[in-house]
Amino acid sequence: MEIAGFGVEEWLNVWEKSATYDIAQSTVSSMTMHEVLNLDGENGQSFYQMLDEQKMNYGWIEGSPEFKEEVAKLYDHVAPENILQTNGATGANHLALYSLIEPGDHVISEYPSYQQLYDIPKSLGAEVDFWHIKEDADWYPDIDELKALIRPDTKMICLNNANNPTGTLLSREFLEQVVEIAKSVGAYVLVDEVYLPLDHPENFASIIDLYDKGIATNSLSKTYSIPGIRVGWTATNTELADIFRKYRDYTMICAGIFNDLMAVHVLRHKDQVLARNKKIVLNNLQILKDWVDSEPRVSVVLPQAVSTSFVKFDIPEDTEAFCVRLLQEEGVLLVPGNRFDMPGHARLGYCTDEATLREGLKRLSKFLKQY
Ligand SMILES: Cc1ncc(COP(=O)(O)O)c(C=O)c1O
C-alpha cells in the first residue's frame, strides 16, 4: 500500500532530540509522572497500591467501564458503551478511516491539517478533495467551497477542530452548516478534536453532539498534556461503534492496564489538569503575542487558546533551510510550514515551559536580524 511520508513526524523524528529550545511541539507542556499522581494530593500512594495488586493481563479490551464513563461525560449525548479506547488520537483516526473508507470512495478533507486525515484515505484508495483553509479568513475554510466539493457519493468529510497547525477553532454555527451539507448526502463527518480551547471551552462543539453520523476522535495527548500514556478514543453512535469494534480487534486489542488506570486518574482530575494548562496557554499566548508585535518580519493569526500556532515569516529564504540553520546555529526548533505544504510559515509550539519559550523567541529574534 502506497502512503506519503508524514511531513511533520519525519521532520520531528530527525531533529527534535537535537533541540535545546524546542518550540515546535503542539502539546501543552507535558506533566511529569509526579505531577499526575499528585493531582489527588496523595503523591501516588493509592495509585501505586492499586497498581501493585493489579494482574498484568490484557485488562478491559475496549477501555475500562470507568474510562468510558469519564470520557462520555465530556459530551452531551454519548453513551459510555459507544466510547472505544485507542492508541492515542492517531489510533482513533486510523481506526475510523480503516473501518469505513474503501477504494473509490469520495472524501473531502480540511487542508492543511493533520496529515492522517487526507493521506490515510488516499492510501486506502479514496479520491480525496482538499477543502482549503485560508489565512485571510482567520484560517477558516469557505463553506461555499464545501458546497462545490460535495457529491452525492461523498462518503466522509474530515476535519481537525481546532486545527493543527493554525490553532483556529471552528464555531458551532460553522459546524452546523457542515453537518447540513453532510446530511444532504448522508456523509460521515470525522473530526479530530485533540485541541480543545482552554479559554472559553464552551465555544467548542463536538461533532458527536451535532450529528448522528459524526465521529469524534480525541486523546489525552494535547489539551490534557500527557501524550506519554498513549490513550485516545472514538466517540460515535452505536452502529459505528460496532463497525469499529470489528476492525479494532485486528489492530490493537487494548491500550494496557497501566495506561487505562492513568487515563482514568487524569480524567477524574480533569478540572485541575485543565486549570493548570489554561494558565500555561494564556500566559504563553501573551508572550507570543508581544513577541510577534515586536517582530517586523513575523505575523500570526492568533490561535484560540489551543496549544499550537502558525506564524508567518517575511524572509528571503527557503523555510526548511531557515529552520535547519536556526536549529544548528541557535538550538531552536520549529516545524517548517512546507511540512504542512505551507512554506513561508512555521508551527511555533508556544505552550512549552515559559523559560524555553522566552529563550527560544529571543534567539529566533537574533537570528531574524541577519536579514
Ligand atoms: C490533530 C492531531 N491529532 C492527533 C495527534 C496525535 O495524537 P496522539 O498523541 O493522541 O496520537 C496530533 C499530534 O500532533 C495532532 O496534531
Automatic annotation (TrEMBL):
Sequence similarity: Belongs to the class-I pyridoxal-phosphate-dependent aminotransferase family.
Enzyme class: transferase
Alphabetically ordered keywords of this record: Aminotransferase, Transferase
Occurrences of domain Aminotransferase class I/classII large (ranges): 56-364
Catalytic activity, EC: 2.6.1.-
Key word Zinc present: no
Name of the protein: Aminotransferase
Top-rank taxon: Bacteria
Record flagged with keyword Transferase: yes
The species this protein was found in: Secundilactobacillus oryzae JCM 18671
InterPro entries: Aminotransferase_I/II_large (IPR004839), NHTrfase_class1_PyrdxlP-BS (IPR004838), PyrdxlP-dep_Trfase (IPR015424), PyrdxlP-dep_Trfase_major (IPR015421), PyrdxlP-dep_Trfase_small (IPR015422)
